[in-house]
């Protein structure tokens, strides 16, 4: 305390105090501020906001009433889950036309996404956004998930979900960074080239097993650096670069010592 | 005979006594003396073969450990261990379960598995770089053609060892590889399906393939590999090691260091470095995590399913082949879509490796022994062919990774496949042409250097206002390196008819060889002869200061090669 007291007249003391004050205010605000409410039942207000957002950002391709155009499909009946998946991963609004809509930093914040989802859900019944409990990896069984993933997902997304190529520039994206909720929604709604795995094909419980398996992969490999989880090609590349690189480097060194 | 006083030669130390005891009974001293004094030339590229040899030693050591825990059985069990979580309670073969068990329950098991697998990848890579060194420097020439054959056999055995070992854990990925092998066997006309049933003991996958591969992998192939490595090393010692060209090095001597202490020390050091690198890789980098692929079941295939890198060219070859080439003749299917890419193309590639030394011997007409290596530039056609071969191999390997190229570079897999289809035919030709041009260019540069010396950057102005740059002549060592090679001319053959107009037998075959010989040696740059050097220097200081613009001796056949001036 003595050291502190001695420095209270230091010329930077006000600056430090100001920073501390800002930190405390910010921290308290962050802790106490109301988190953007995920309203269970969409209010008419939300739907109105959503409609406006839709007309400003989506209607060019999907039509003024989401009825679809030659450019893009109708959104009547796709449900809130599809909207939440596409908008929260930044796939929609689409950055540019191409073989498939790429994920990017989301353009809409959570409130706007919820409003858009509410609007599209109001157009016709469709799958709803899954609850936190439905997507909880801790509730799933990774071993069951592994078996399901192997038969349903691995052929496109790679054995551990590192992603894979489809025809004509399309691709199955890597799942290692995807949120559990988005994985569930993707299975439920089948975005882009992906087939729909409805609750009859994969029950909600099975979907949770799959999420548990993917979540387990994020912990990395028991064997060390996972090298991108890409299998033998990346292993071969590393064998040449690291293995042969070090060994030939050493050989040059041993050979150089004499001559 | 017996004397009471020991002579000076009699050993006094325990080691000396033991050695003397052995020597009196086996004459081992004679052999040891020879080996100890054996001279080996020193160059880093002569250690590339050691990479393969020492990774093989590591493979043997780690492999012995793995056999203690691996159970080659296709009986089905439920996995009961705690780790890995994703495998608990799953139905799998005993082979797969024992692989998981040795990875997660045996102390050091996963480390050993990973060291073994990394060593296999580095073993094959070591063989490839060693072969490249031998090929491009012409070390396969007489008297080493047989050793080249032994080496090529070792490479093929290495492929088989790798593939059989890769399949043992009985996981989805390697099972898919076996399914491809099954398809390739079945594509062979007439005997294909019978052979497949013979290999798998019935319809694929059956219950026999893992035990059979186990015998192949831990007994048959290692025994053959060891025996051939013995032959390979014996021939290397017998033929003496080749050496790079340089002053004082000829086909009649070997310039280097004695085996003990210098060469043996370097070799031992290299062994520990290689072992260390492989252990480090095994300890820090995950490889072939079979629990991610799951136990084999013929139905699923994961994206990014590829073999280890040394088999990738086969995968690529299959991926490039259009599928429409399967034809049905009188109810029998001829699967050219598999036969061509998986049997004929690798067959051609390996045949090239096996026959090349003999073809080159034939087109040069050279029957002498060679112990001094070629600089790759001095044999442009060979260097070009080697690079063309590697280009074809690399294009196929890249085609085998086309899906990963597509996802990582945001490209269409269809476009990539088409690009590789075209490149497979165009790429090697282009690589050959450009490599040969570069070699000829380097040779011309050597001539220029020998005749006119190094540029010094020193500009002199004469009294009459003329500027010239001073050239410093090469010293003897530099000159030796650049003039001491042979530019073979195309074969000369006897005329078609003899003096009496009678047609000569074998003329047509000779003509064919001559044509091939022309392809090899039509374009060539002759080394500077002493008289040319004399001529270049005969004008004394004047000529040395003022390089003449005479053309270098570029000899050319029917086609003219552009002159550099």
From TrEMBL, chain A:
<dbReference type="Pfam" id="PF00034">
    <property type="entry name" value="Cytochrom_C"/>
</dbReference>
<keyword id="KW-0813">Transport</keyword>
<keyword id="KW-1003">Cell membrane</keyword>
<keyword id="KW-0349">Heme</keyword>
<keyword id="KW-0249">Electron transport</keyword>
<feature type="transmembrane region" description="Helical">
    <location>
        <begin position="237"/>
        <end position="256"/>
    </location>
</feature>
<dbReference type="Pfam" id="PF13442">
    <property type="entry name" value="Cytochrome_CBB3"/>
</dbReference>
<dbReference type="InterPro" id="IPR036909">
    <property type="entry name" value="Cyt_c-like_dom_sf"/>
</dbReference>
<protein>
    <recommendedName>
        <fullName>Cytochrome bc1 complex cytochrome c subunit</fullName>
        <ecNumber>7.1.1.8</ecNumber>
    </recommendedName>
</protein>
<comment type="subunit">
    <text>The cytochrome bc1 complex is composed of a cytochrome b (QcrB), the Rieske iron-sulfur protein (QcrA) and a diheme cytochrome c (QcrC) subunit.</text>
</comment>
<keyword id="KW-0812">Transmembrane</keyword>
<keyword id="KW-0679">Respiratory chain</keyword>
<keyword id="KW-0479">Metal-binding</keyword>
<keyword id="KW-0408">Iron</keyword>
<keyword id="KW-0732">Signal</keyword>
<feature type="domain" description="Cytochrome c">
    <location>
        <begin position="45"/>
        <end position="124"/>
    </location>
</feature>
<feature type="domain" description="Cytochrome c">
    <location>
        <begin position="140"/>
        <end position="218"/>
    </location>
</feature>
<feature type="signal peptide">
    <location>
        <begin position="1"/>
        <end position="30"/>
    </location>
</feature>
<keyword id="KW-0677">Repeat</keyword>
<dbReference type="InterPro" id="IPR009152">
    <property type="entry name" value="bc1_cytC-su"/>
</dbReference>
<keyword id="KW-1278">Translocase</keyword>
<keyword id="KW-0472">Membrane</keyword>
From TrEMBL, chain B:
<keyword id="KW-0812">Transmembrane</keyword>
<feature type="transmembrane region" description="Helical">
    <location>
        <begin position="47"/>
        <end position="70"/>
    </location>
</feature>
<keyword id="KW-0479">Metal-binding</keyword>
<feature type="transmembrane region" description="Helical">
    <location>
        <begin position="115"/>
        <end position="136"/>
    </location>
</feature>
<dbReference type="InterPro" id="IPR005797">
    <property type="entry name" value="Cyt_b/b6_N"/>
</dbReference>
<feature type="domain" description="Cytochrome b/b6 C-terminal region profile">
    <location>
        <begin position="246"/>
        <end position="441"/>
    </location>
</feature>
<dbReference type="InterPro" id="IPR027387">
    <property type="entry name" value="Cytb/b6-like_sf"/>
</dbReference>
<feature type="domain" description="Cytochrome b/b6 N-terminal region profile">
    <location>
        <begin position="18"/>
        <end position="245"/>
    </location>
</feature>
<protein>
    <recommendedName>
        <fullName>Cytochrome bc1 complex cytochrome b subunit</fullName>
        <ecNumber>7.1.1.8</ecNumber>
    </recommendedName>
</protein>
<feature type="transmembrane region" description="Helical">
    <location>
        <begin position="214"/>
        <end position="238"/>
    </location>
</feature>
<keyword id="KW-1133">Transmembrane helix</keyword>
<feature type="transmembrane region" description="Helical">
    <location>
        <begin position="148"/>
        <end position="168"/>
    </location>
</feature>
<dbReference type="InterPro" id="IPR005798">
    <property type="entry name" value="Cyt_b/b6_C"/>
</dbReference>
<dbReference type="Pfam" id="PF13631">
    <property type="entry name" value="Cytochrom_B_N_2"/>
</dbReference>
<keyword id="KW-0813">Transport</keyword>
<feature type="transmembrane region" description="Helical">
    <location>
        <begin position="411"/>
        <end position="435"/>
    </location>
</feature>
<feature type="compositionally biased region" description="Basic and acidic residues">
    <location>
        <begin position="534"/>
        <end position="547"/>
    </location>
</feature>
<keyword id="KW-0349">Heme</keyword>
<feature type="transmembrane region" description="Helical">
    <location>
        <begin position="379"/>
        <end position="399"/>
    </location>
</feature>
<dbReference type="InterPro" id="IPR016174">
    <property type="entry name" value="Di-haem_cyt_TM"/>
</dbReference>
<feature type="transmembrane region" description="Helical">
    <location>
        <begin position="338"/>
        <end position="359"/>
    </location>
</feature>
<feature type="transmembrane region" description="Helical">
    <location>
        <begin position="271"/>
        <end position="291"/>
    </location>
</feature>
């Amino acid at each position: 305390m003595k050291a502190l007291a001695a420095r209270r007249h230091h010329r930077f003391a006000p600056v430090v105090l100001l920073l501390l004050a800002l930190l405390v205010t910010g921290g308290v605000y962050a802790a106490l501020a109301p988190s953007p409410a995920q309203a269970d039942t969409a209010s008419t207000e939300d739907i109105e906001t959503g409609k406006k957002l839709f007309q400003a950002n989506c209607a060019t391709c999907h039509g003024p009433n989401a009825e679809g155009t030659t450019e893009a499909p109708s959104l009547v009946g796709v449900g809130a889950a599809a909207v939440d998946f596409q908008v929260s991963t930044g796939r929609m609004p689409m950055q540019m036309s191409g073989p498939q809509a790429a994920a990017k930093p989301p353009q809409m914040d959570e409130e706007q996404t919820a409003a858009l989802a509410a609007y599209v859900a109001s157009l016709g019944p469709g799958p709803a956004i899954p609850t936190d409990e439905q997507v909880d990896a801790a509730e799933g069984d990774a071993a069951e998930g592994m078996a399901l993933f192997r038969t349903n997902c691995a052929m496109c997304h790679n054995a551990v979900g590192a992603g894979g190529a489809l025809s004509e520039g399309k691709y199955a994206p890597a799942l290692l960074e995807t949120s559990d909720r988005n994985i569930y929604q993707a299975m439920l709604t089948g975005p882009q080239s992906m087939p729909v795995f409805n609750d009859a094909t994969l029950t909600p419980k099975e979907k949770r097993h799959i999420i548990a398996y993917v979540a387990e992969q994020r912990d990395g490999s028991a064997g060390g650096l996972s090298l991108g989880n890409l299998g033998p090609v990346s292993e071969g590349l590393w064998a040449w670069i690291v293995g042969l690189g070090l060994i030939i480097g050493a050989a040059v060194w041993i050979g150089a010592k004499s001559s | 005979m017996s004397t009471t006083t020991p002579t000076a030669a009699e050993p006094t130390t325990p080691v000396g006594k033991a050695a003397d005891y052995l020597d009196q009974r086996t004459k081992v001293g004679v052999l040891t003396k020879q080996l100890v004094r054996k001279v080996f030339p020193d160059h880093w590229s002569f250690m590339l073969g050691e990479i393969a040899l020492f990774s093989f030693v590591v493979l043997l050591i780690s492999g012995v450990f793995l056999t203690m825990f691996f159970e080659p059985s296709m009986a089905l069990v439920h996995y009961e261990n705690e780790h890995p979580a994703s495998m608990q309670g799953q139905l799998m073969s005993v082979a797969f379960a024992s692989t998981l068990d040795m990875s997660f329950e045996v102390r050091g098991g996963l480390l050993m598995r990973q060291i073994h697998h990394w060593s296999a990848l580095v073993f094959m890579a070591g063989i490839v770089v060693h072969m490249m060194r031998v090929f491009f420097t012409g070390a396969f020439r007489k008297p080493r053609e047989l050793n080249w054959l032994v080496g090529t056999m070792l490479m093929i055995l290495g492929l088989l060892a790798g593939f059989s070992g890769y399949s043992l854990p009985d996981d989805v990925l390697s099972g898919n590889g076996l399914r491809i092998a099954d398809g390739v066997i079945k594509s062979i006309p007439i005997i294909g399906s019978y052979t497949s049933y013979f290999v798998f003991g019935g319809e694929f996958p059956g219950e026999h393939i893992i035990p059979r591969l186990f015998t192949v992998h831990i007994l048959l192939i290692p025994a053959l590999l060891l025996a051939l490595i013995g032959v390979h090393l014996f021939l290397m010692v017998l033929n003496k090691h080749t050496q790079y060209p340089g002053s004082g090095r000829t086909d009649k001597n070997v310039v280097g260091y004695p085996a003990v202490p210098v060469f043996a020390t370097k070799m031992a050091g290299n062994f520990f470095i290689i072992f260390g690198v492989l252990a480090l890789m095994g300890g820090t980098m995950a490889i072939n995590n079979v629990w991610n692929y799951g136990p084999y079941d013929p139905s699923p295939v994961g994206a990014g399913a590829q073999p280890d890198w040394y088999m990738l060219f086969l995968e690529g070859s299959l991926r490039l082949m259009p599928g429409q080439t399967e034809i049905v003749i009188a109810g029998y299917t001829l699967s050219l879509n598999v036969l061509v890419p998986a049997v004929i193309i690798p067959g051609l590639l390996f045949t090239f490796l096996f026959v090349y030394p003999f073809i080159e011997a034939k087109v040069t007409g050279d029957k002498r022994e060679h112990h001094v290596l070629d600089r790759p530039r001095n044999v442009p056609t060979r260097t070009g062919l080697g690079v063309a071969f590697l280009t074809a191999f690399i294009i196929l390997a890249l085609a085998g990774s086309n899906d990963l190229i597509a996802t990582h570079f945001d490209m269409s897999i269809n476009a990539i496949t088409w690009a590789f289809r075209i490149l497979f035919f165009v790429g090697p030709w282009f690589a050959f042409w450009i490599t040969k041009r570069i070699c000829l260019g380097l040779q011309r540069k050597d001539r220029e250097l020998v005749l006119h010396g190094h540029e010094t950057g020193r500009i002199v102005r004469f009294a009459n206002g003329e500027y010239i740059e001073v050239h410093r002549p090469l010293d003897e060592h530099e000159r030796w390196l650049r003039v001491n090679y042979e530019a073979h001319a195309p074969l000369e053959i006897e005329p078609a008819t003899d003096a009496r107009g009678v047609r000569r037998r074998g003329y047509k075959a000779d003509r064919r060889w001559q044509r091939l010989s022309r392809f090899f040696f039509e374009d060539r740059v002759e080394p500077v002869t002493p008289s040319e050097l004399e001529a270049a220097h005969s004008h004394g200081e004047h000529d040395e200061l003022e390089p003449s613009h005479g053309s270098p001796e570029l000899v050319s056949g029917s086609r003219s090669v552009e002159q550099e001036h």
